[in-house]
Design goal:
Belongs to the sulfatase family. It holds the Pfam family Sulfatase. This is Arylsulfatase. This protein is of the alpha/beta class and 441 residues long. 26% of the residues lie in helices and 20% in strands. The chain has eleven helices and 16 strands. The chain has a ten-stranded mixed β-sheet, with helices on both faces. A hairpin with an 8-residue loop joins β15 and β16.
Length: 441
């Protein structure tokens, strides 16, 4: 057996803070029980203040690089055929794991580049299977007036390191229902293969659920009696349980850091509306409902069973995992993440970060520091209209979790530490200029 711990990182798509039973959702509140993920939370660390970026692309770029997406230029989704994703000069979590001697696999949604040189197998993964962009595209081929002569047909793809990636089959409304099942089977085979070879592995499993169109596998259709969204939530819970079971069956639980989290706040498109529970807003906003998402980490004997409200950010995953696997973090560029390993394992009672800056695309929208939140631009709901504030809004998130009552006039002292964070970040940008979005390799 390998002496290095395995890493399994499952990222749900558009899973809001309030969907899971262990976060106040589940059967009674959301129509679908989530017993497998709830059990996972009862066996590890459940974060109540884990924060991400505004939507799919920026969060995934932050996860892969440990850098805020404003630095990498990967801060928005664009249609197929246009420059997108991470430049090859960016260094990824998968490359770090590979350099540390790990077998690496990506099964699921990539969304960080859809041309040769930018697929997962070009960026540190030994193998991959999934979608290069997003699930919106499953609607393309059945849309009125769709013309494959001028529009790209979406495909599920696959590739291996050192080989070109290739189309496998059309990604449409039918294959949307079955893709997560496929991802699980490929993940299980990957873990079994490397366990037998006593090789440590890094499995990155970015599931498709619960992204719209939120359609369940036929085996789960009608299961809850609460519609497609609840059925899909039940399926997602089952799929996560399949991975947990495989790890346990391989007797790898004590040797595996298992992380389950979401990429951003809840789905807002009808009829697949999600919920952020007690928080206001959805993804594409700077509200807490966009920033805070579920995060559960299990590592028996290493991570205690606990729940806390300390700030952790998605950029922290890369340096944290670097410390876990003995990887080396690059020192030739700013890395915004900090290792949270001593915090997660109980050696430190508080997080190693006090706050962070929150951008939507290239606009600084908010700063979060301790229990305070400062908004420079006010847009509480998607497409409500971004209102740049002459006098920022300040909220205390314990006293006012829904961000309803501005208290800046009584607490201007908070501007000091917050604006120092902004200045430090801008100074680093002067020293290491940001990559413009869409820049070619």
């Amino acid at each position: 057996m390998s002496t290095k711990p395995n890493i399994v990182l499952i990222v749900a798509d558009n899973l809001g803070w309030g969907e899971l039973g262990c976060y106040g959702g589940g059967k009674l509140m959301r129509g679908a029980a989530t017993p497998r993920i709830d059990a996972l939370a009862q066996s590890g660390m459940r974060l109540l203040n884990y924060n991400v970026e505004s939507d799919c692309v920026p969060t995934r770029s932050a996860l892969m690089t440990g850098r805020h997406p404003i630095r990498t230029g990967a801060f928005q989704s664009v249609p197929p055929g246009l420059p997108q994703g991470l430049k090859r000069t960016e260094w990824t979590l998968a490359e770090m794991a590979s350099e540390a001697g790990y077998a690496t696999a990506h099964f699921g949604k990539w969304h960080l580049g859809d041309v040769e040189g930018r697929y997962p197998s070009d960026r540190g993964f030994d193998e991959w299977y999934g979608i290069p962009r997003t699930t919106d595209e499953t609607q393309f081929t059945t849309s009125i007036g769709f013309d494959p002569e001028v529009a790209d047909i979406p495909y599920i793809m696959a590739g291996k390191k050192g080989e070109p990636s290739a189309n496998v089959k059309v990604y449409d409304l039918e294959t949307r229902r079955t893709i997560d099942e496929e991802l699980i089977e490929k993940s299980k085979a990957f873990m079994r293969r490397n366990a037998l070879a006593s090789k440590p592995f890094f499995l990155y499993l970015p599931l498709v659920h619960l992204h719209f169109p939120t359609l369940p596998h036929k085996d789960f259709e009608g299961l809850t009696g609460m519609g497609d969204f609840a059925d899909s939530l039940a399926e997602m819970d089952f799929r996560v349980g399949q991975i947990v079971d495989e790890i346990d069956d391989l007797n790898l639980a004590k040797d595996t850091l298992f992380i389950f989290c979401s990429d951003n706040g809840p789905e807002f498109r009808a009829p697949y509306r999600g919920t952020a529970g007690p928080w206001t807003g959805t993804y594409h906003t700077a509200m807490e409902g966009s920033l805070r998402v579920p995060f559960i980490a299990r590592w028996p004997g290493k991570i205690p069973v606990d729940a806390n409200n300390q700030i952790v950010h998605v950029v922290d995953l890369l340096p944290t995992l670097a410390e876990v696997i003995g990887g080396k973090v690059r020192d030739d560029r700013p890395i915004d993440g900090v290792s949270q390993l001593d915090f997660l394992t109980g050696g430190r009672p508080v997080s190693n970060r006090e706050g962070f800056l929150f951008y939507i695309k290239d606009e600084l929208r908010a700063v979060k520091w301790r229990d305070w939140k400062l908004h420079f631009v006010w847009e509480p709901y998607v497409n409500a209209g971004a209102n740049k504030l002459e006098s920022p809004y300040l909220f205390h998130l314990i006293q006012d979790p829904k961000e309803e009552t501005d208290v800046l006039v009584c607490n201007t002292w908070v501007l000091g530490p917050m604006l120092k964070m902004v200045k430090a970040f801008k100074d680093s940008v002067k020293a290491y200029p940001n990559t413009p979005p869409g820049e070619l390799d």
